[in-house]
């Protein structure tokens, strides 16, 4: 019974992440795009999928990955997320430097640009703080608060950025993925808050 439930959960997870990628790969819009632009676009889709993985790992919601092992994998996935974002931004810079400069300066006419840039800086901030955490002498509670605040910025900015883009991603599968990212983030934040209350009461 448990193995069947675990299989179902993993199958659902693979479908939620894989279907948007497959749908984007079948998009007719790719015919008018160069290889660098396509790589950048798919790096962005992968990054959105990795944002879903993070709360699932930290909360221990994926079968076979308890919270302790999930937190270790969380660090590695965080690194992969940074790489995916850098490929996404770097590819778009190569294909259209003026547009990227406008986006980074928050003067781009496209409504989705500022949300993506904010999410990008929040991702880089988390990575930098994680790398310098010990040198900065962060207490566990301070780190949790900083990480949680930046995670909220990443999720909010990333989801709005993704939903506002009308590109290769299919609308329904994209919306489903974004909804699950939001739901997983809210759940893990609620669960972690409960744990802190319990620890305090003891």
The whole-number mean of residue pLDDT values reads: 90
CA-to-CA gap between the ends? 35 Å
Task: Give the low-confidence spans.
Answer: 197-202
**What is the ordering of alpha helices and beta strands?**
HHHHHHHH
The share of residues in helices is: over 70%
Strand element count: 0
Counting DSSP H or I runs of 4 or more residues, the number of helices is 8
- Quaternary class: single chain
Note the main sheet.
none
As for the number of domains, it is 1
Question: Judging from the principal axes of the Cα atoms, what is the shape?
Answer: globular
Q: Estimate the strand proportion.
A: under 5%
Helix-and-strand structural type: mainly alpha
List keywords for this structure.
202 residues; mainly alpha; 8 helices; 82% helix; disordered C terminus
Descriptive report:
This protein has helices at residues 2-25, 35-59, 67-95, 97-104, 113-131, 133-136, 140-164, 171-201. The chain is mainly alpha-helical. It has one domain. The longest helix has 31 residues, at 171-201. The radius of gyration is 18 Å and the shape is globular. Mean pLDDT is 90; it is low at 197-202.
What's the gist of this structure?
The protein is 82% helix and 0% strand. The chain has helices spanning 2-25, 35-59, 67-95, 97-104, 113-131, 133-136, 140-164, 171-201. It starts with a helix and ends with a helix.
